[in-house]
Amino acid sequence: MTERLYYKDPGLLSFEGAIIEAIESSGKHLTILDKTAFYPTSGGQPHDKGLLNSVAIIDVTESDGKIQHISDSAVGSKGDIVKGEVDLVRRRYFRQLHTAQHILSSVFIELYDFETVSVHLGEDYGAIEINQPSLEEDQLLKAEQLSNEYILQSLPIEIIFAGEQEAQKLPLRKKPSRQGTIRIIKIGEIDYSACGGTHCYNSSEVGLIKIINIEKQRGKALINFLAGTKAKEDYDKRFEVTDTLSKQLTCAVDELKLRFDKILEENKLYRQQLGQLQNELLPMKINEAAAKSESSNGKNFVCIEVDSMDSKVAGNFTTSLADKISGIALIQLEERIIIGVCDTDTINIEAKEIARRFSSELNLKGGGGKTMAQLGGALKGQLNKYREVLVNILNEL
Question: How many percent of the chain have pLDDT more than 90?
Fold first, then answer.
């Protein structure tokens, strides 16, 4: 068994321990110590990283009560005393995130009696799955506000080791399934939870909890959130973006939404006007493109690249061009390919079949029907390649 130093002091980063096993397996080295401050992946919380005798620890796992420090090179031999250094930034982040999860879960019970049924503590964000199919925006806002109020109160966080009978007397958020001595994380008087993870010393160390979105998972609400340093990083990014936009648009940050709504409306109107103009010019453009038509295996075709054309107009242009040449039209519009096939008995292949061949040979994604198909993922400057594929298809007919 490995003594878990983080059990009693989650802020401990430096320590010394003796190697009791050193194993090499599948090109990796597994070092097992008599005691360690490294946290192994468990309980939804990822492992620590750091150094053992200056050797980078890339993973930490647990097996039969033994904590395995995994590295690319050997740390030492059995009996050696090694010095361990846990990565401060990573440990601090997961202490903040895990504590934030406890606070958020307890708040949902306090406000709405909604229980947390699963937890995700990731390197980018945290998430709790609630035993409800959905939540209203005002419920999320109230939960976030109360959680941050508890953070501001600097509630003390204690680690309690209790026997089964003693644990039964405590207001645990969830009754533990394990027997024997139970490790309990107590946050002020708002939360008592059986947990083996690393947490802050008081709630103020969490800094901030920010709910970022809500999803549905297995018919239940999945609430994604940021905490601590990640919440600060997210704010910095958003500040940079909003500050830049407000300067470019010469408006205050709180006016950005109104300004963008206006821009979107204007853009919608301009696109409608552009589409009308392009439709008026369509006959001329069709004649110009039809003059570039070619023939292969007795089938007329044309392959051209067009710029700055409305998507709806482009579809109409392609099918009209195919009808004009009584054959097949392929146009490339930025990263899209549009295929048109004239609706006559002279062409014994449908647009969707041509699209299927393009998807198979060039890994483009899309589909369509008898007279028109569209594909995404096209590369600029590759029109000749797309022409060759079309010619090969026509030669097989």
Answer: 72
Per-residue pLDDT at 279: 72
Q: How many CA atoms lie within 13 A of 162 on its CB side?
A: 21
Amino acid in the structure at residue 156: P
Q: Distances from the Cα of 311 to the Cαs of 270, 274, 328, 374, 383, in angstroms?
A: 14, 11, 19, 11, 19
Give the largest CA-CA distance in the chain. Answer: 90
> Of 107, 192, 196, 128, nearest to 157 (Cα)?
192
Nearest to 395, CA basis, from 309, 142, 387, 260: 387
Q: State the Cα–Cα distance between residues 98 and 78, nearest whole angstrom.
A: 34
The CATH number, out of the four listed (3.40.50.2300, 3.10.310.40, 3.30.1490.270, 3.90.1010.10), of the domain defined by the range 281-395:
3.10.310.40
Q: Bridge-partner residues for 84, per DSSP?
A: 15, 52
List, for residues 80-112, the tens digit of each pLDDT value: 999 999 999 999 999 999 999 999 999 999 999
Q: What share of the chain is helix, strand, coil (3-state, %, to 5)?
A: 40, 30, 30
- Same topology, domains 3-86 and 92-235? Answer is no
Mean pLDDT calculated for residue range 10-26: 95
* Among candidate residues 332, 336, 341, 335, the one with its CA nearest the CA of residue 301: 341
Residue 12 has pLDDT above 80, yes or no: yes
The string of pLDDT tens digits covering residues 330-372 is 999 989 999 999 987 777 889 999 999 999 888 889 999 999 9
Q: From CA 361, how far away is CA 181, in angstroms rounded?
A: 62
Buried b (16+ CB within 10 A) or exposed e, 170-202: eebbeebeeeeebbbbbbbebbbbbbbbbbbbb
Inter-residue contact 217 to 208 (CB < 8 Å): no
Give domain limits for the chain: 3-86, 92-235, 281-395
Task: Judge: domain 3-86, CATH 3.40.50.150.
Answer: no
Q: Is the pTM of this model over 0.85?
A: no
Q: Which pLDDT belongs to residue 86? A: 98
- Residue 261 has what pLDDT? 87
Query: Which architecture characterizes domain 92-235 according to CATH?
Result: 2-Layer Sandwich (3.30)
